[in-house]
Amino acid sequence: MTELRVLPVRKDEAYLLKSTRGAYLVDSGGIGCAMPELLNDRQVRKLRAAICTSVSSGRLGGILELLRVKHPVGEYWLPEGLEILSELARRFNGDMAGWLALAAGDGATPVPVSKTWPPLAEGTGRRLQGAAALLALVMAASQGSWHGVLPVGEKHEPASIFISIIELLSHRAAERWNEGDQKAGAALLTLGTRLLEGGTPVDLANLCGRLMLVELDRKKKKFQRGLRGMVLSAMISAQADSDEARFRFFRPVDRMAAHLVSRHPMKCLNGVETTPLPGLPRQVRPEMILNLAAELTMPGNSLTFQYGEAQCGVLFCGDTRMHFVDKGEVLCLDRPTVITAPDRGSCRSERAYRHVVSNDPSANVWVRGFLPHSCKVSTAYHMQENTFCLNNTRTMVLQEILLRFQDGRWQRESAACCTAMDTQRAIR
User: Fold this and answer.
1) Residue 133 contacts residue 90 (beta carbons within 8 Å)
2) Sheet holding 73-79, edge to edge
3) Which has the closest alpha carbon to 235: 135, 118, 315?
4) Of 208, 266, 280, which Cα lies nearest the Cα of 48?
5) What is the pLDDT of residue 391?
6) Lowest mean pLDDT among 91-100, 332-341, 388-397
7) Residues pairing with 362 in the sheet
């Protein structure tokens, strides 16, 4: 039996597909969505693959939690930019002034390569080194200087860099939360630092990344989305450095690729599996890092995956706008298929719907994840014959969608129908 669940997460979306071939998680909600607990409650002891369609905290958060608790996962499928960003930071050429100028939006100013960069020590893993370099770059961009970011010393261990950044962020928190009692704030900071020193470098990287995401949310910087992508890449890299699962990376392409993932009943429609690192320059300028981060986190640029078996299928659209389908071409569905609405049914992906056609539209089911009350629902989505929503737009109550394929049809076991009233209220 094949079943699809739209899991009850309030940040972006998460889909759980279970079949005789194993369980797949496609996107995973935001940080703090308790993904390991959600899977355990549904008796999913092991995932055959955890898949991320695009780089955002709302799609990677649950995967980060699975890595942190070492939930049994056979493979992780990720956009290749996550792996490349970490390696680019590891090879940063030391143009600190140029990096800060770029991050501030003033243009880069070439300076001699610094002898204090990269902040790497021998004997540590490549991915952990890249994570430390990425977080140091983001922290420097966030505060506009290098003061206090890198610990004093000839060689910089990743753990010492993580602790240094956490101390800076803790000082800021102490200043905000204890404005009238700086001494008490300093005492709390000292105690916290001692506790941190007992953690593994991976634990420190994870905590550092979570704190930095909160710090970036407080700022309105020009490249905030790209900087957040760098933090997410650092968190993935640090945890992947010590995980035994297989990591597979996919490069997006601007054409219909229909790449069949080996040993899985899944295709990547607009991406090809790749080995990301060969061919990278030995030294990397700051603009290369920031440009890749901006491109990687650009909305509407996600990977599209299609699951298929003899009788049914599932199309995972992510937030794609279907630009990879050429003009005049369509993506034809030849069996009853569940389609996850592009960008959760938001009107920003209105044009994507015209590229998906079916031999029997009445046999298909369209689903969408949690959509905030402030977002407009796509007219094209509402025009589909069978639509189910994770949340009721009138009450904002979450209701998990559970669909099972039986007797040649997708049967609804649990879901709320999308109604005209729901859509109109959302539009207002």
Assistant:
1) yes
2) 271-274, 246-252, 73-79, 47-51, 22-28, 14-19, 2-6, 401-406, 409-414
3) 135
4) 266
5) 77
6) 388-397
7) none
